[in-house]
Amino acid sequence: MTEAETKPRILETAEEVAQPAASSPSPERKSKKKRLRWANLSYTTRVTLAFALIAAMTALVAIGVVSFVWEQHFRTYTADNMNTLCKTTADRIAANYEVTGDLWNPETCKPAAQATELTSGVGVKVIDAKGATVFDSSIIVNEQDGHTFTSFAPTDETEVVQAPITVDNQKVGTVRLWVYGSEALMRQPDQEFRDNSYQAMFIAAAVAIVLASCIGFLFARNLVAPVNRIMGAARAIGDGDLSARTNLRGEDEIARLGETFDAMAESVEKDRDLERRLTTDVAHELRTPLMAIQATVEAMVDGVYEADEERLVTVNSEIQRLSRLVNALLKLSRLENRAEPMKEEVVNVGDLIAGIISTHEMFVSDSGLTLEYDAQPDVMVVGDADMIRQATANLISNAVRYTPEGGRIAVSVKKGDIMASIAVRDTGIGLTKEEARMVFSRFWRADAGRNREQGGLGIGLAVVKEIVDRHGGWVQVEGEKDKGACFTIHIPLYDEEAAKKRTRTKKHTGHKKTR
């Protein structure tokens, strides 16, 4: 194939490729088309247009109904007027006929001429009993010969009204009456009145549409204003300003939405502050054992310390402390994120806590404290035995940590009306009301004067609260400075009848699904 033959084919191919591109709409056209859609209009514009359309439809329906009814009644009204005028003229002619005795007398037909003069646009014709024209207001005499007459009286009987001229119960003639240029016997003033009425109705409709548009605009602005405030607050929070609030108050739905949004923003801000504080506390808590390990190891590497058993024990204790801290953080994170599934089984709280007491007796005794235990029989709850055991163990360990030698720790299990309670009371350093509100925060210690070796990790009570929350209960804190403290776990009691009902409901539902 030659080069000359190849070029035309290349050009044809290029044209074929260019045609779809040329036919496809440009991005500007697409954006214009999108702007014309109803969904792309602002809410204010849509509400305004909706109000205007409603007003226009209402006005059109009203005009249509009124014009239909009015047209019928108006035509009847004008026809009745013409009939009355025609009958009155006939009666007056009859009265003159009684005086003159002749219908052809000009004085007799004078009322016909007066009718045309008093009522503009009306034609009158008087006919005698034989059908001869006595009077015709529409006759025009030809000016050229003076003998040719032209009458503009309508020939169609539907366009005229007529009334008999009766004298002594004898018909002596007929009066015919019509309106020039109107088949409906509607005079020019009547037509102008009708046209002006329609014009007034259309003007009223236009004014109603404008007023409805203004009302719709104001209504939409008042409705959108709080939405814009919510949107602005959300945008500010998205940009990092967690203090942004809508400050909406009221009883309507949007006000409640704003209040809910503010509550959510408050929670987000608290969580962010908590996250920052947690990051700082974790970094601080991890740095202490890491620095101790690093300093000891570097000293041994540099030959300052010998790698003897004492130094290795120090390093090992810090590593164990670091491991406990990481495990506690991991446990708390799993509880908060619901990553660790919770077993639901019937647990005898008294027997469960008795096992914990037996394993902690030596630990409490080595700390120079006495441990007492009292439990009511058959205190049953539904929950995870391992979690309840851990929560109680954390409370006992916390009591041992903050109770000086010679003190006493009392653990009791009681059964209330709807809740089971596990109370751990000590005779330790106690806590104030302000401290009681902070006691479940991460890395918080009741006694700031304690060093970190004596104090705990500051996570145990936070774990306790998460465990109790997952069981649908709460933790009660009581105490007084230097007089001890009491932590009480409240967990809902096991309701055997309710559990049987739930079991029957599950079986019934499963049976329906199987069918």
Q: Can you characterise this structure?
A:
This protein is an alpha+beta fold. It has 4 domains: 1-37; 85-191, Beta-Lactamase (2-Layer Sandwich), CATH 3.30.450; 253-336, Signal transduction histidine kinase, dimerisation/phosphotransfer (DHp) domain (Helix Hairpins, Orthogonal Bundle); 345-500, Heat Shock Protein 90 (2-Layer Sandwich). Helix content is 58%, strand content 15%. It has 12 helices and 13 strands. It has helices at 3-23, 27-35, 43-100, 110-118, 188-238, 253-302, 309-336, 349-366, 385-401, 433-438, 460-470, 496-514; strands at residues 122-128, 133-136, 140-141, 149-150, 160-167, 170-179, 345-348, 370-375, 380-383, 408-415, 419-426, 474-479, 485-492. The strands form 4 sheets. A 5-stranded mixed beta sheet has the order 8-10-11-13-12, covered by helices on one side. Residues 1-24, 27-32, 448-455 and 511-515 have low confidence and may be disordered.
Summarize the model shown.
By secondary structure, the chain is an alpha+beta fold. About 60% of the residues lie in helices and about 15% in strands. The protein has 4 domains: about 35 residues; about 110 residues, Beta-Lactamase, CATH 3.30.450; about 80 residues, Signal transduction histidine kinase, dimerisation/phosphotransfer (DHp) domain (Helix Hairpins), CATH 1.10.287; about 160 residues, Heat Shock Protein 90.
